[in-house]
């Protein structure tokens, strides 16, 4: 609960007023709005990301969620993990549904049918739902300038349907539809740069995050939710099943993704890039890749090629932040 969620003319309970006074910037709720007892896999970093996200969002939200792992694990009838209003959407229309909810709320407030309030509409989807099938709905919603937050939980493949590649799967990763073997190294395309695509829409706020850096993640979600207009947060979510990694290493692997420069943490605020961490020297990508079975087959040469690309992309990003 925080400033941005306060209803106009509505008196807050004293406890929340006190908390609000302390947390001017990051009004994180202590309540769990994503309940435990869901069906996520052991070591799932995505469910951790959703939990942290919900803490940062507070109570006054409406969530539209695409089909994908998080919807599957949280909404098996007759149970639900959601303590806030939540609607399941299709793969292709999450951002369109969020747009409709936001426009509907606005119209109802204008007509005096509901009190004026700052309910935040949040769309959530996986990498398949964002970078592939839901891309046009997302682009449309960003371009129309809806007041909503879109969060991509990126586990780098279509995981709930059996580890099929998406356009966010990294180069060289073996998946069931890009299997490594005699004729292929696995995924032969480079990961689609979703934050850059979103940045091309010139929206006020974009950030990347990872649950291995929980406070950074919550700060960014909280900041994004406070934006008046479209905001986008892209969250890398380690998937031990799909990445063939030990479940107890998910947090460490997420940290390595950041420390190697493979998944840099940064923000773009009104067009201005800002790196979230000062990393004087990147760790070798091998440190990250060796812990994951999906890269096990890669040759030294391919890893070198990936290392070079990662270093180049990271430098480009740092140059944008410095420029
Ligand atoms: C148009 C359409 N195609 C295919 C499916 C089947 N489907 C449901 S979820 C899913 C994969 C989701 O991948 P992603 O968005 O990355 O989420 P994850 O499961 O990895 O969390 C697929 C292919 C569908 N529901 N709708
Ligand atoms: Mg996915």
In what order do the strands lie side by side in the largest sheet?
A: 2-1-3-4-6-5-7-8
Shape annotation = globular
Number of strands: 8
Low-confidence stretches: 1-13, 15-26
Classify the helix fraction into a percent range. 25-40%
What's the helix count?
12
Q: What does this 3D model show about the protein?
A:
The chain has 323 residues and is of the alpha/beta class. It has a single domain (25-322), classed as Thiamin diphosphate (ThDP)-binding fold, Pyr/PP domains (Rossmann fold, 3-Layer(aba) Sandwich). The chain contains twelve helices and eight strands. An eight-stranded mixed β-sheet has the order 2-1-3-4-6-5-7-8, sandwiched between helices. Strand 1, helix 3 and strand 2 (86-88) form a beta-alpha-beta unit. The longest helix has 23 residues, at 300-322. The chain starts with 13 loop residues before the first helix and ends with a helix. Residues 1-13 and 15-26 have low confidence and may be disordered. The structure holds thiamine diphosphate (TPP) and magnesium ion. Magnesium ion is lined by residues 126-128, 155, 157-159.
């Amino acid at each position: 609960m925080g400033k941005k969620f306060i209803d106009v003319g509505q008196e807050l309970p004293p406890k929340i007023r006190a908390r609000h006074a302390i947390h001017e910037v990051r009004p994180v709720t202590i309540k769990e709005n994503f309940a435990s007892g869901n069906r996520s896999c052991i070591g799932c970093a995505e469910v951790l990301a959703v939990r942290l996200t919900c803490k940062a969002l507070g109570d006054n939200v409406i969530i539209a969620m695409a089909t994908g792992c998080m919807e599957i694990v949280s909404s098996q009838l007759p149970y639900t993990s959601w303590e806030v209003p939540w609607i399941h959407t299709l793969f292709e229309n999450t951002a369109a549904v969020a747009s409709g909810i936001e426009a509907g709320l606005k119209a109802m407030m204008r007509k005096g049918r509901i009190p004026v309030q700052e309910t935040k509409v949040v769309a959530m989807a996986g990498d398949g739902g964002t970078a592939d099938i839901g891309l046009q709905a997302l682009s449309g919603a960003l371009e129309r300038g809806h007041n909503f937050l879109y969060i991509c939980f990126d586990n780098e493949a279509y995981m709930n349907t059996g580890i099929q590649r998406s356009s966010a799967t990294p180069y060289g990763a073996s998946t069931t539809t890009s299997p490594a073997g005699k004729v292929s190294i696995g995924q032969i395309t480079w990961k689609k740069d979703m934050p850059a695509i979103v940045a091309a829409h010139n929206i006020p706020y974009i950030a990347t995050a990872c649950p291995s850096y929980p406070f950074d993640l919550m700060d960014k979600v909280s900041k994004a939710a406070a934006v008046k207009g479209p905001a986008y947060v892209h969250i890398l979510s380690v998937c031990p099943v799909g990445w063939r990694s030990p479940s107890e290493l998910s947090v460490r692997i997420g940290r390595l993704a950041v420390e190697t420069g493979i998944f840099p943490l940064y923000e773009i605020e009104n067009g201005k890039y800002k790196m979230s961490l000062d990393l004087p020297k990147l760790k070798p990508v091998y440190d990250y890749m060796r812990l994951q079975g999906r890269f096990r087959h890669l040759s030294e040469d391919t890893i070198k090629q990936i290392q070079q690309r990662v270093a180049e992309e990271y430098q480009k990003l740092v140059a944008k932040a410095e420029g």
